[in-house]
UniProtKB/TrEMBL annotation:
The chain crosses the membrane at residues 34-54. The lineage of its organism: Bacteria, Bacillati, Bacillota, Bacilli, Lactobacillales. Pfam families: TpcC. It comes from the Bacteria. Gene3D superfamilies: 3.10.450.540. CDD domains: TcpC_C, TcpC_N. Keywords: Membrane, Transmembrane, Transmembrane helix. This is Conjugal transfer protein.
Length: 319
């Protein structure tokens, strides 16, 4: 830079080689780009969290499935450890001892109390033997095994039994629900009489396993089902098997050998069109005052003005 003075004025002359400095602009932050980056980051974090949650849920479901499979295998192992697929001398010895007690009805209180106490050793813990002595007596004569089958997961042994009521011989087919584990047996539901099991038949497709659906039913539905159940059980006891084919899928009938003494512990569940009812049925022989109790489950289907019995089981559960 050259300084030139003229009079009282001074001038600066630019050097030809001098280059003026260009002031630099300060960089401004692009807010739109910043917002995009923030949103991308947030979306990434959210997606990562969702993926982690899904993976955790899948792991949980897998663990639950594995637990169910382990439980299924354990159940199969328990069933395999029963050491019985059908008849065995050990089972027959147990049942013969049980039947000798069960079909004996003394007509005095002391003997009946001893019989009930001995019978309790054969029953599951939630079953009771509290039969009362009356004027009539019943004695056990003999029993032969007829069949061993499974109904809703419960093993049942059917025996042909011969016994005497007041010295008059009679016979029938008695079904005893039982459970076995490690060669130990227990009667898990009250025995019941039925027709002889016919092993000859045409086997159709396997029915799907029923899943019990407990739900609250209306008072009107509850009353209708209970009224039908009481009427049906009285007819079942009095009628022949052939007379029950219009009301039952698999007809059964006791042909007047028994009378209904009591129906109690009635429980209704299921749906409006397919209700299910459970009860404790007490029967009394027509030729004596001797009674016995049976567990009953009826699976019904709604008809126009009544119900049809799709399943009639002599138990209140299964596996």
């Amino acid at each position: 830079m050259i300084l030139i003075k003229i009079g009282s004025f001074e001038f600066k002359k630019r050097n030809s080689n001098q280059v003026d400095k260009i002031p630099r602009k300060k960089k401004k932050v692009n807010m739109k780009s910043a917002r995009i980056i923030v949103w991308i980051t947030m979306v990434f974090i959210f997606c990562s969290g969702v993926m982690a949650f899904i993976k955790a849920s899948n792991v949980s479901q897998t663990n639950h499935k594995l637990q169910k499979e382990v439980q299924t295998y354990q159940t199969k192992l328990d069933q395999a450890s029963t050491n019985i697929n059908g008849y065995s001398p050990l089972l027959n010895n147990y049942m013969q001892g049980f039947l000798k007690l069960y079909l004996t009805y003394p007509n005095n209180t002391d003997a009946m109390d001893k019989r009930n106490q001995a019978l309790s050793a054969y029953y599951a813990t939630n079953l009771t033997a509290n039969d009362q002595a009356g004027k009539d007596s019943q004695t056990f004569n003999k029993a032969y095994i007829q069949s061993i089958y499974t109904q809703q997961g419960v093993k049942i042994a059917q025996y042909y039994v011969n016994y005497s009521v007041n010295n008059n011989q009679t016979n029938g087919y008695l079904n005893i629900p039982f459970k076995v584990k490690n060669s130990k047996f227990t009667v898990v539901s009250y025995p019941y009489f039925s027709n002889k099991i016919d092993p000859v038949g045409h086997i159709g497709k396997l029915q799907s396993k029923y899943t019990k659906e407990n739900q609250t039913t209306s008072v009107n539905l509850n009353n209708r089902v209970i009224d039908f159940t009481k009427s049906f059980l009285k007819k079942y006891v009095a009628a022949k098997t052939s007379d029950m084919k219009f009301i039952m899928a698999k007809p059964q009938g006791l042909a007047g050998k028994y009378k209904v003494a009591n129906i109690q512990n009635l429980h209704v569940y299921g749906t409006k069109n397919n209700p299910i009812v459970q009860c404790l049925l007490t029967l009394k022989r027509s030729d004596s005052d001797i009674e016995h109790s049976e567990n009953v489950t009826l699976k019904l289907s709604k008809q126009q003005t009544t119900y049809f019995v799709d399943q009639f089981n002599h138990n209140i559960g299964g596996n």
